[in-house]
Amino acid sequence: MRRSGKRKTAKQHPADYDQVSTASRQLPVLLHRTREALAVRFRKVFLQHDLTDPQWRVLRILSQVDELDVSRLAQRSYLMRESLSRILRDLAARGLIVRRVSNADARRIFHTLTAKGRQLLEEVAPAFNPVYKEIEARFGIERIEELNVRLSELLDAIQLPDEEGV
Questions:
Q1: What is the 3-state secondary structure (H, E, C) of the chain?
Q2: What's the rounded Cα separation, in Å, for the pair 45 and 21?
Q3: What pLDDT is stored for residue 21 in this prediction?
Q4: Is the alpha carbon torsion for 11, 13, 18, 22 positive or negative?
Q5: Which of 154, 133, 159, 156 is nearest to 144 (CA)?
Q6: How far is CA 37 from the centre of its chain?
Q7: N or C: at which end does the chain have fewer Cβ atoms within 10 angstroms?
Q8: What whole-number distance in Å separates Cα of residue 148 and Cα of residue 89?
Q9: How far apart, in whole angstroms, are the C-alpha atoms of residue 63 and residue 95?
Q10: What local confidence, expressed as pLDDT, does residue 1 receive?
Q11: Cβ distance 69 to 83 under 8 Å?
């Protein structure tokens, strides 16, 4: 006896699918698409200065502290240690950061921004102003401020306890 081409499949959606709002389901997609749209705008500036977004993130973080170890830098930058190692090596090769082995524990490596790194930050940072101005003109500063408040509240609501302060 020949079987029909139709197979029984598992339910497409879990039983509680209908209990979650469409708005909640759209949130991750919209946040990701927004982040990517912003990245496109900022990437133009990075390319002009031979930087990547992750490299810029590391430089900005290091500009706010005297020095930082790799573990803490990975947490603050939201970069995986493997990617961060390559980024740190590239930034060091360009003379933008220096590394120091801890006196107390040779396994701990600290990184510091160099004068050349600070100079690059001071040169590049103003190049982002037109991007910010355009976003403000299109969306409105009040709405941006409100969005910042709401996104901070969302982060507080969903962040796991071991991720706080990262």
A1: CCCCCCCCCCCCCCCCHHHCCHHHHHHHHHHHHHHHHHHHHHHHHHHHCCCCHHHHHHHHHHHCCCCEEHHHHHHHHCCCHHHHHHHHHHHHHCCCEEEEECCCCCCCEEEEECHHHHHHHHHHHHHHHHHHHHHHHHHCHHHHHHHHHHHHHHHHHHCCHHHCCC
A2: 38
A3: 86
A4: negative
A5: 133
A6: 13
A7: N
A8: 33
A9: 14
A10: 47
A11: no
Residue with tokens 């598992």: 10
Residues paired with residue 110 on neighbouring β-strands, in sequence order: 69, 100
Q: Which residues pair with 112 in a beta bridge?
A: 98
**Phi, psi at 59, each rounded to 5°:** -60, -45
Query: What are 89's two structure tokens?
Result: 């090596």
pLDDT of residue 5 exceeding 90: no
Q: Which of 132, 131, 124, 133 is CA-nearest to residue 59?
A: 124
Confidence of residue 161 (pLDDT cuts 50, 70, 90): confident
pLDDT tens digits along 74-121: 999 999 988 999 999 999 999 999 999 888 888 888 999 999 999 999
Task: Return the residue matching tokens 């493997």.
Answer: 82
Per-residue tokens: 7: 């197979």
